[in-house]
Amino acid sequence: MGSSAFLLNTFGLSAQTQQEKPPPLKQDLVKEFVIAGHGNLEKTKTLLALEPGLLNACWDWGGGDFETAIEGAGHIGSKEVANYLLSQGARMNIFCATMLGRLDVVKAILLINPDLKNSKGPHGLQLIHHATKGGDGAKEVLEYLQSIGAK
Length: 151
Description:
With about 150 residues, the protein is mainly alpha-helical. The chain is built from ten helices and two strands, in the order H-H-H-H-E-E-H-H-H-H-H-H.
Protein backbone atom coordinates (compact mmCIF):
# COMPACT_ATOMS: atom_id res chain seq x y z
CA MET A 1 0.00 0.00 0.00
CA GLY A 2 1.42 3.40 -0.98
CA SER A 3 1.85 6.15 1.62
CA SER A 4 -1.09 8.23 0.37
CA ALA A 5 -3.36 5.16 0.34
CA PHE A 6 -2.19 4.35 3.88
CA LEU A 7 -3.05 7.87 5.07
CA LEU A 8 -6.42 7.82 3.36
CA ASN A 9 -7.29 4.46 4.92
CA THR A 10 -5.89 5.43 8.32
CA PHE A 11 -8.06 8.52 8.57
CA GLY A 12 -11.12 6.86 7.05
CA LEU A 13 -10.98 8.88 3.86
CA SER A 14 -11.52 7.41 0.46
CA ALA A 15 -9.91 8.42 -2.80
CA GLN A 16 -13.41 9.43 -3.90
CA THR A 17 -13.69 11.94 -1.03
CA GLN A 18 -10.30 13.42 -1.91
CA GLN A 19 -11.28 13.83 -5.56
CA GLU A 20 -14.48 15.69 -4.66
CA LYS A 21 -12.62 18.48 -2.89
CA PRO A 22 -12.42 21.80 -4.72
CA PRO A 23 -9.03 23.00 -5.92
CA PRO A 24 -6.69 24.77 -3.47
CA LEU A 25 -7.34 28.44 -2.84
CA LYS A 26 -5.42 30.92 -4.96
CA GLN A 27 -2.26 31.84 -3.11
CA ASP A 28 -2.51 35.56 -3.88
CA LEU A 29 -6.03 35.58 -2.39
CA VAL A 30 -4.84 33.78 0.76
CA LYS A 31 -2.01 36.29 1.22
CA GLU A 32 -4.37 39.23 0.66
CA PHE A 33 -6.80 37.85 3.26
CA VAL A 34 -4.10 37.26 5.85
CA ILE A 35 -2.80 40.80 5.32
CA ALA A 36 -6.35 42.18 5.64
CA GLY A 37 -6.71 40.28 8.91
CA HIS A 38 -4.06 42.53 10.40
CA GLY A 39 -6.67 45.21 11.03
CA ASN A 40 -8.71 45.92 7.90
CA LEU A 41 -12.17 44.73 8.99
CA GLU A 42 -14.04 45.79 5.85
CA LYS A 43 -11.60 44.09 3.49
CA THR A 44 -11.61 40.99 5.71
CA LYS A 45 -15.42 40.86 5.46
CA THR A 46 -15.39 41.45 1.71
CA LEU A 47 -12.81 38.76 0.98
CA LEU A 48 -14.50 36.24 3.27
CA ALA A 49 -17.84 36.86 1.54
CA LEU A 50 -16.10 36.31 -1.80
CA GLU A 51 -14.40 33.09 -0.66
CA PRO A 52 -15.60 31.50 2.62
CA GLY A 53 -12.76 28.98 2.42
CA LEU A 54 -10.36 31.73 3.45
CA LEU A 55 -11.55 31.67 7.06
CA ASN A 56 -8.73 29.44 8.33
CA ALA A 57 -6.41 29.75 5.34
CA CYS A 58 -2.75 29.99 6.22
CA TRP A 59 -0.01 31.94 4.47
CA ASP A 60 3.65 30.90 4.60
CA TRP A 61 5.83 34.00 4.85
CA GLY A 62 8.87 31.74 4.44
CA GLY A 63 11.07 29.75 6.73
CA GLY A 64 8.14 28.13 8.52
CA ASP A 65 6.52 31.45 9.48
CA PHE A 66 2.88 30.49 8.94
CA GLU A 67 0.02 32.87 9.68
CA THR A 68 -3.77 33.02 9.45
CA ALA A 69 -5.87 36.18 9.37
CA ILE A 70 -6.93 35.72 13.00
CA GLU A 71 -3.29 35.38 14.01
CA GLY A 72 -2.52 38.62 12.19
CA ALA A 73 -5.30 40.30 14.14
CA GLY A 74 -3.89 38.79 17.32
CA HIS A 75 -0.37 40.11 17.07
CA ILE A 76 -1.38 43.66 16.18
CA GLY A 77 -4.24 43.85 18.68
CA SER A 78 -7.15 44.10 16.25
CA LYS A 79 -9.98 42.92 18.47
CA GLU A 80 -12.60 43.91 15.89
CA VAL A 81 -11.15 41.65 13.22
CA ALA A 82 -10.46 38.81 15.66
CA ASN A 83 -13.99 38.88 17.08
CA TYR A 84 -15.50 39.06 13.60
CA LEU A 85 -13.48 36.05 12.44
CA LEU A 86 -14.41 34.11 15.57
CA SER A 87 -18.08 34.92 14.94
CA GLN A 88 -17.65 33.35 11.51
CA GLY A 89 -16.17 30.15 12.97
CA ALA A 90 -12.42 30.83 12.82
CA ARG A 91 -10.20 28.65 14.99
CA MET A 92 -9.27 30.20 18.32
CA ASN A 93 -5.70 29.68 19.48
CA ILE A 94 -3.74 30.67 22.57
CA PHE A 95 -2.23 33.74 20.88
CA CYS A 96 -5.61 35.18 19.90
CA ALA A 97 -7.09 34.28 23.29
CA THR A 98 -4.21 36.10 24.96
CA MET A 99 -4.78 39.29 22.96
CA LEU A 100 -8.52 39.15 23.63
CA GLY A 101 -7.93 38.84 27.37
CA ARG A 102 -9.42 35.35 27.63
CA LEU A 103 -7.64 34.36 30.84
CA ASP A 104 -9.86 31.28 31.18
CA VAL A 105 -8.72 29.91 27.82
CA VAL A 106 -5.06 30.81 28.34
CA LYS A 107 -4.96 29.21 31.81
CA ALA A 108 -6.71 26.07 30.58
CA ILE A 109 -4.23 25.58 27.74
CA LEU A 110 -1.20 26.30 29.92
CA LEU A 111 -2.49 23.93 32.60
CA ILE A 112 -2.40 21.13 30.05
CA ASN A 113 0.95 22.18 28.56
CA PRO A 114 2.88 24.69 30.70
CA ASP A 115 5.78 24.88 28.25
CA LEU A 116 3.56 26.78 25.82
CA LYS A 117 4.07 29.89 27.97
CA ASN A 118 7.13 30.61 25.82
CA SER A 119 5.88 29.30 22.49
CA LYS A 120 6.25 31.46 19.41
CA GLY A 121 3.41 32.45 17.15
CA PRO A 122 3.58 34.05 13.72
CA HIS A 123 6.75 36.09 13.16
CA GLY A 124 8.20 34.57 16.33
CA LEU A 125 6.01 36.76 18.55
CA GLN A 126 5.33 35.30 21.98
CA LEU A 127 2.33 35.44 24.31
CA ILE A 128 3.65 38.45 26.24
CA HIS A 129 3.60 40.45 22.98
CA HIS A 130 0.00 39.43 22.31
CA ALA A 131 -1.08 40.31 25.85
CA THR A 132 0.55 43.73 25.51
CA LYS A 133 -1.27 44.32 22.21
CA GLY A 134 -4.53 43.42 23.96
CA GLY A 135 -4.27 46.56 26.08
CA ASP A 136 -6.42 47.00 29.16
CA GLY A 137 -8.65 44.09 28.16
CA ALA A 138 -5.71 41.70 28.38
CA LYS A 139 -4.09 43.17 31.50
CA GLU A 140 -5.02 40.16 33.66
CA VAL A 141 -3.55 37.79 31.07
CA LEU A 142 -0.35 39.83 30.93
CA GLU A 143 -0.04 39.76 34.72
CA TYR A 144 -0.69 36.02 34.78
CA LEU A 145 1.91 35.34 32.08
CA GLN A 146 4.46 37.44 33.95
CA SER A 147 3.68 35.61 37.19
CA ILE A 148 4.46 32.24 35.60
CA GLY A 149 7.69 33.43 34.02
CA ALA A 150 6.61 33.73 30.40
CA LYS A 151 9.13 35.53 28.22
